Amino acid sequence: MFEQPKTEKSLSSQLLQLPVVVAALGYLVDMYDLFLFSVVRVPSLKALGVDGDQLLPEGIALLNWQMAGMLIGGIFWGVLGDKRGRLSVLFGSILIYSLANIGNGFVTSLDQYAALRFVAGLGLAGELGAGVTLVTEVLPKQIRGYGTTIVATMGVLGAIMAYFVADIFAWRISYFVGGGLGLVLLVMRVNIFESKIFETVKERQVKRGDLMMLFSNRERLVKYLQCILVGLPIWFVVGILITFSPEFAQAIGVSEPVVAGKAVMLTFAGQVFGDIGSGLLSQYFQSRKKVIGGFIVVSLGIVLVYLLVPIKDLNVFYVICMLLGAFNGYWALFVTIAAELFGTNLRATVATTVPNFVRGAVIPLTSLFVYGKGHVGTLNSALIVGVLTITVSLISLYFLEETFKKDLNYLETD
Predict the structure, then answer these.
(1) Closest to 411 in 3D by CA, of 349, 352, 345
(2) Is 322 within 8 Å of 389 (Cβ atoms)?
(3) How many Å apart are CA 146 and CA 155, to the nearest integer?
(4) Residue range 124-145: average pLDDT?
(5) Which end of the chain is more exposed for a tag (fewer CB within 10 A), N or C?
């Protein structure tokens, strides 16, 4: 009768060990900064003299600068994480994006804003991949899904926090808050320890963080590309449907103006439940693929409602945004699969570059959306891009290996 409490204590003590907690808090700050721009896009651009029809194209341009930084940063931090260690990424990335966040609060021109969003993107690129890699390597395989769920859930809470901070404070102060939180977390990271799996590999004479290993083997390259494609629907929804929700709401005839910040907040409130739910379901079914597939299919249905149903009531529109968030709540599982599919000497490279290439895919997705918008209209263009994105992701998921019970103590070889 005393065995159950002992097991529960053991589980909680493993999940709440310092690397997991600090990785989760790091992703909270990461997501705060990443989505703060979506929340303050309109007021910050208006303060810099942008108004009217220019708010959308200038907002897309700034978002693309941020995502370009994440693409480049994802490669840099991923390789560094496998060559020097997971902790070097956790320290370096948070320092860069915290300082860039503070700098965003001082911008006086669009050029300065674009440059600092690019630098912030460089820093933000390293946080999630390094955190998930560390968590998957320090936790037993039976519970690592819980660990990455904790990390992802804290990240989504960071996005919600961005809304409330921006609602209370002016947009410049909101950036200062994010930078300050990052610097505080940097101090907390002094005492965390490196993954033992990585430390063992580091002592051996094997290639680590060699990006060309992803391209030298056809099977490995296909697997890598499939990982990226599985995550695309998440950023189609967030980067297009939610970031530009005021424009979509106007197009479908919502009776009142939509506040982008509120749409973002409600979407990520939904994603909190989605991340928790998808993580628990994957543990229950002992499958990452089944849960992700189910979430993507339901998400497609909600996307069709968002774009095709003539919604008039503002509150109904916000509820749909929340549902979109809930069924896009497989971000943690998606990154976990990417980490589990590759050996220790390439794991950080993959787990860091894959989510950032997905984020960076917002650039071609928004470009395709804007191009189509001029030919078939706002709603039809988004519909075409969305259906294409989701179809490709489901096909890619089908061919991926199930990784729930996979042992991570292995290497990639030439």
Answers:
(1) 345
(2) no
(3) 14
(4) 86
(5) N
For the residues 13-19, what does the mean pLDDT come to? 79
Q: Identify the pLDDT of residue 285.
A: 92
CB 305 within 8 A of CB 320: yes
CA of 346: how far to CAs of 36, 84, 339, in Å? 31, 12, 9
The tokens of 231 are what? 């995550």
- The alpha-helical segments, DSSP class H, found in 309-377 are 314-326, 331-340, 347-360, 362-376
Q: Has residue 150 been placed in a domain? A: yes
DSSP 49: T
Residues for the chain: how many in total?
Answer: 414
Compute the distance between CA of residue 171 and CA of residue 173 in angstroms, rounded to an integer: 5
Report the CATH number at residue 367: 1.20.1250.20
Domain count, the chain: 1
Give CA–CA dist 388/392, Å, rounded. Answer: 6
Residue 3 has pLDDT above 60, yes or no: no
Condensed to tens digits (0 to 9), the pLDDT of residues 334-352 reads 888 998 999 989 998 999 9
pLDDT of residue 9 exceeding 60, the answer is no
Element of type H or E holding 228: helix 218-236
- Owning domain of residue 336: 17-191+207-399
Instruction: Provide the pLDDT for residue 132.
Output: 87
Report if residue 410 sits inside a domain. no
In the chain, the N- to C-terminal Cα span, in Å, equals 52
Whether the predicted model's global pTM rises above the 0.85 cut: no
The token pair at 280 is 């628990």
Scanning 84-170, the segments in alpha helix (DSSP H) are 86-104, 110-124, 127-138, 144-168
Tell which residue, 194, 54, 185, 92, has the closest CA to residue 138: 194
- Give the CA count within 13 Å in the CB-facing half-sphere of 335: 34
Q: What Cα–Cα distance (Å) separates residue 44 from each residue in 41, 54, 106, 113, 242?
A: 5, 13, 11, 10, 18
Confidence check: pLDDT of 151 > 90 = no
Q: Tell how many helices (H) and how many strands (E) occur in the chain.
A: 18, 0
Interatomic CA distance for residues 396 and 405, integer angstroms:
20
